[in-house]
Amino acid sequence: MTHIRHLSVVLVTATAVGLSACASDPNRDTKRGAAIGAVLGAVAGHQVDGDKGRYIGAVVGALAGGAAGNYMDKQRKELEQKLAAEAARDELQIVQLSGDALKIGVASDISFETNSATLQSGALNTFAKIANVLKDYDKTVIHVVGHTDSTGSAQYNQSLSERRAAAVSTFLASQGVPPSRVREEGRGERELLIRTGDNVNEARNRRVDIIIKPVIEGQENQAWTPPPYLGG
């Protein structure tokens, strides 16, 4: 379902690009077809090269194994610099994970109203800063994972976490992050950052995690693998 939603987004984008050509341009149909074809080529990056077991086409090139650490360290430092104010207000945390991956954990309370999956206006600037850095480091796959606390039913929390992840993913796309690089999922109340019992209103468990995984030559499929357990 996520893949289908991403396909719809990029098809709309490609169509808009094609239609922006001047109506009097005799080559407009060719240009429109080329634009849509290029975007579909990017979407094909979610397909696996059967001979090599690799995901292909979704990102620009891949990193040599020895270069991944420096590449991700540079990205982490830039994120920390751009998001220093938010980190000082405890609105987010940037954490180094195994495999040179990075995690930006953003508090849901500053992003969404209670029981809402609509991004608050005050959060847009934060996610725009994140998007601007992600665009500059295009040899990565971005996983957007939504979480909730343990209040309410598990079924409702699962749906809410999915809708919030989708809202963040859509906003990143609106800021120029290619949808072909983004995967989204909700994990409901299954991965609590602060372990609690049922029906506990714990703000720190309400969050959206953005996991940034490097695409390493020969190990491209690992970048697309969903992040491991993200709870505490």
List keywords for this structure.
single chain; alpha+beta; 60s Ribosomal Protein L30, Chain: A; 2 domains; five-stranded mixed sheet; 7 helices; 7 strands; about 15% strand; globular
Q: Under CATH, the topology of the largest domain is which?
A: 60s Ribosomal Protein L30, Chain: A
Shape: globular
Secondary structure: number of strands: 7
What structural class do helix, strand and pairing data support? alpha+beta
Q: What is the CA-based Rg, rounded?
A: 19 Å
Structure explained in plain terms:
- There is one protein chain.
- The protein has 232 residues and is of the alpha+beta class.
- It has two domains: 1-46; 62-224, 2-Layer Sandwich (60s Ribosomal Protein L30, Chain: A).
- 41% of the residues lie in helices and 16% in strands.
- The protein has seven helices and seven strands, in the order H-H-E-E-H-H-E-E-H-E-H-E-E-H.
- The chain has a five-stranded mixed sheet.
- Helix 6 links the parallel strand 5 and strand 6 (182-186).
- It is globular and about 45 Å long.
- Residues 1-57 have low confidence and may be disordered.
Compact summary:
With 232 residues, the protein is an alpha+beta fold.
Architecture blueprint of SSEs:
Elements: H1 2-19, H2 28-43, E1 48-49, E2 54-55, H3 68-82, H4 84-88, E3 92-96, E4 102-107, H5 121-136, E5 140-147, H6 154-174, E6 182-186, E7 207-214, H7 220-224
